[in-house]
Automatic annotation (TrEMBL):
The keyword Manganese does not apply. It comes from Streptomyces atratus. InterPro entries: Bact_polysacc_biosynth/exp (IPR050445), P-loop_NTPase (IPR027417). This is Chromosome partitioning ATPase, Mrp family, contains Fe-S cluster. Residues 505-520 have a biased composition (Basic residues). The chain crosses the membrane at residues 27-47. Keywords: Membrane, Transmembrane, Transmembrane helix. The keyword Membrane applies.
Length: 557
């Protein structure tokens, strides 16, 4: 029985990822909520946001040059394109553009004007791209044009101002030199020293005059508007379909994140791998859900029943298991709850073994809420009338009944009966004699015990039965419960043969179960009931013990 466990541990990484993805898909409600929230957010952004229109113009920046067509002349001489980009988005350019737009009838402040402007520089170029986003196509085009023209005008003014300042400086230097030259000219012309000084002054005056002439001859064109802004034909930005798609993708990612968080903190068994690892035993089978059960506890004997075939498969698997074949004794229990699934599994496994020709004894060791004989209904034969129960001996004496399975055979049922001292009754010698009948050739003893984590009744029987089958709902059992069951059974000297999964009850079935329990409690007198808790069983201890009563229809489903 350890080979399937090792096989699960040896799976490759893709199989583990697929398993984890399937676990995330269990929380479909969270995934659906995430997608819905994302779609609503995308739709809200698309419908609530104002449509924007973007117009773009491109400006090539150039420096002042005396002869732009001369060999070796470079347009990017002394240009820092990063500084020029900062100038384009400055308040100085915006102020000039505001004045231009005001003359055109568009009154706007500097801050709102700059909020719609974006200036970029394509790599390895001297191009500034002016992009302006406005409420209308015409507004975007006009403001982009005004900002580009304002930048060129500011740059031209700065170039001209720089040239004027330099010319004024040269003239300031030229004035005293000219005065000295005139002064030396009035002196005697025959002096060599005066002639030399005058010649030097003439050279200096000529150099300054040449520089002034070169500055005045400079081409101060700041740049060219190579691409004029035009009115855009459609709004920019993501449209409704794109925003809905992005919202759905983001919502799906959010749903997966929430599902992962829910999966991390979920104490329930998340997969078959975790169940097998926590319990330390293989999975014997998974029972299908059958709605057409007609209120019968036994599925064996109904033609065309998938549930019956699953029970037969589990019985055959147990029959060929070495651990069970050696002792032929089986204890069926549940982790918690009312044990309805365990009762149905014990009865159907007994019928399956009887169908295989085995001499089967089914012992109901639930002495607190015995209901198996009542739930088997007409199939139980040999129950005594109510008056014959007076003065009866302690359980399990004189509690044998025959259970007829149509078309499959019969098995012996030792039904439970409410007992004052349950631990003494379970550990009594008659119980040991009944369990020892499993040593006879061809005999099988199946013991139905209450939930192992609710009462210690199953623990009291493990040392005699040894083989244990845990019947549980994977959506309700916790990993810690399975680990505790494995430790309890191992400490008591038993072996977990495997786990049998049954489908849980729906909300409608649980509501119907509570109504049936209230009807039974209000319409019958509480009492000890007939022997074995058969059809004459009266009284429902569920209210006293805080347990949910057993309903055959809901339990079978």
């Amino acid at each position: 029985m350890n080979q399937p466990i090792r096989a699960l541990e040896d799976q490759d990484e893709p199989a583990l990822l697929r398993d984890q993805f399937r676990q995330l898909l269990r929380y479909r409600a969270l995934l659906a909520c995430g997608v819905v929230v994302g779609l609503l957010g995308g739709g809200w952004l698309a419908l609530s946001g104002e449509e924007g229109y973007t117009s773009t113009g491109e400006v090539v920046v150039r420096s002042a040059a005396s002869d732009p067509f001369a060999a070796g002349a470079s347009a990017d001489k002394g240009i820092n394109i990063g500084s020029e980009r900062q100038t384009a988005v400055s308040d100085t350019v915006a102020t000039l553009a505001v004045a231009t737009l005001a003359r055109q009838g568009d009154r706007v402040e500097v801050g709102p004007l700059l909020s719609g402007l974006q200036v970029t520089n394509p790599p390895n170029t001297l191009v500034l791209r002016f992009s302006y986003t406005g409420r209308t196509p015409a507004l975007a085009r006009e403001r982009a044009q005004a900002l580009a023209d304002a930048y060129l005008e500011i740059r031209r003014q700065r170039t001209e101002n720089s040239i004027a300042n330099m010319v004024e400086g040269y003239r300031a230097q030229l004035s005293p030199l000219t005065a000295q030259r005139d002064q030396l000219t009035e002196q005697a012309a025959g002096s060599d020293d005066v002639a030399g000084a005058r010649a030097n002054l003439v050279v200096a005056i000529s150099e300054l005059s040449r520089k002034i002439s070169e500055l005045r001859a400079l081409d101060t064109t700041p740049g060219y508007l190579t691409k004029k802004p035009v009115a855009p034909s459609g709004p920019t930005g993501a449209g409704l379909p794109l925003l809905l798609g992005l919202g759905g993708a983001v919502g799906l990612a959010l749903g997966l994140l929430l599902s992962w968080v829910r999966l991390v903190f979920d104490p329930a068994v998340r997969s078959t791998r975790e169940l097998v690892r926590s319990l330390g035993a293989p999975l014997l089978g998974t029972l299908p859900r059958e709605r057409a059960s007609a209120g019968a506890l036994l599925a064996i004997g109904r033609s065309g029943s998938r549930l019956a075939e699953e029970y037969r498969a589990v019985a055959f698997r147990l029959a060929y298991d070495p651990s069970f074949a050696q002792r032929r004794r089986l204890l069926v229990t549940a982790p918690r709850g009312d044990g309805a699934g365990a009762a149905a599994a014990a009865a159907n496994l007994a019928a399956a073994f009887a169908e295989m020709g085995r001499d089967v004894i089914l012992v109901e060791a639930d002495l607190r809420t015995p209901a198996l004989a009542r739930d088997l209904g007409p199939a139980v034969q040999g129950s005594r009338p109510r008056w014959a129960n007076r003065g009866e001996r302690a359980w399990p004496s004189e509690s044998r009944m025959n259970v007829d399975v149509p078309g499959s055979g019969a098995f012996t049922l030792i039904a439970g009966r409410r007992t004052d001292n349950v631990p003494r009754a379970l550990t009594s010698a008659p119980v040991g004699v009944i369990v020892a009948e499993g040593d006879r050739p061809g005999a099988v003893v199946i013991v139905l015990a209450p939930p192992v984590l609710s009462y210690a009744d199953a623990v009291a029987l493990i040392d005699r039965v040894e083989g244990v089958v845990v019947v549980c709902d994977p959506r309700e059992v916790h990993r810690s419960d399975l680990e505790r069951i494995r430790e309890i059974i191992g400490a008591a000297g038993g072996t977990v043969l495997g786990a049998l999964l049954h489908p849980g009850r729906s909300r409608h079935e649980r509501r119907a179960l509570r109504k049936a329990a209230r009807r039974r409690t209000g319409g019958e007198r509480p009492g000890r009931g007939s022997e074995g808790g058969g059809p004459e069983y009266a009284g429902d201890p569920a209210e006293t013990l805080g347990l949910r009563p057993f309903d055959s229809t809901a339990g079978h489903r």
